[in-house]
Amino acid sequence: SRIQRFSRxxxxxxxxxxxxxxxxxxxxxxxxxxxxxxGKVTVLAEHREERxxxxxxxxxxxxxxxxxxxxxxVSEDEVTYSx
Length: 83
Fold this sequence. Notes:
The chain is about 0% helix and about 50% strand. By secondary structure, it is an all-beta fold. The protein has a domain at about 30-70: Immunoglobulin-like, CATH 2.60.40. The chain is elongated and about 60 Å long. The two termini are about 20 Å apart.
């Protein structure tokens, strides 16, 4: 099955807060990491699954990465995220 990828940035002129929504459907929370560095936010999701049978070995590997710049005036220390 194909992983759906969705991202959107929303802003509010009232409180200057920003929200990025990233759909990492198909990944467990332990597969997802978020890094804030050098004015950028990087979301990385990786999953590896191996199965062995008596006649073969299969490996399923998925990776998703999304990187975006922080909006002007937003400090790296102000960034929070949840899964």
